[in-house]
Description:
With 171 residues, the chain is an alpha+beta fold. 29% of the residues lie in helices and 17% in strands. It has one domain (23-157): Transposase IS200-like (Alpha-Beta Plaits, 2-Layer Sandwich), CATH 3.30.70.1290. The chain has helices at 41-52, 54-57, 104-123, 143-155, and strands at 23-30, 61-68, 72-79, 136-140. Strands 2-3-1-4 form a 4-stranded antiparallel sheet. Helix 1 packs antiparallel against helix 3. The longest helix has 20 residues, at 104-123. The protein is globular and about 35 Å long.
Amino acid sequence: xxxxxxxxxxxxxxxxxxxxxxxxxxxxxxxxxxxxxxxxxxxxxxxxxxxxxxxxxxxxxxxxxxxxxxxxxxxxxxxxxxxxxxxxxxxxxxxxxxxxxxxxxxxxxxxxxxxxxxxxxxxxxxxxxxxxxxxxxxxxxxxxxxxxxxxxxxxxxxxxxxxxxxxxxxx
Length: 171
C-alpha cells in the first residue's frame, strides 16, 4: 500500500491558477540527471521540430522565443489571446485542473512525452527517461518582463559556460 503522505509530490504550480487562461508563459524543461543530450544535433532537432508542431495540435497556442541548450530547453508559449501582456493574471480560485486539454500542463506533458518517445527511438533506448519529472513555468505578467525573458533566452547559449545547468561550468 502506498503512503500518500510520504509519496506526495508538492506541486510547484500556482495554487488555483487557471493554466488554460490566455497569457504568456516562460517554460524551462531539464533533461533527466541533467544529461547533455542535446549536444547531439539530431536530438536537438527533435526538440525544435516538436516544439514547433505544438501549433498544429493546439490552435490557441502561439510560440515565441525559444532555445534548446545541451541539457535543457527554454521557451515562451502564449495561450489564447496573443496580444500584449497587460493584465496581472491574478489567480482564479475556481480554476479548473492544470491538466485540462489545451492547458499549459497538458501541452508541456504532451511535448515531453512525444519527444521522449522519438529520442528513445533514435537512441534505441526504449522506456528511458529523457526529462526530469516536472518543469519550471513562470506566468509573464507584463511587457517589460516579457522582453527581459526573451533576452535571457537569446543570451543563454553565450552564457552556457557559466550556466548553473552546465555540469562543466567554469567557476
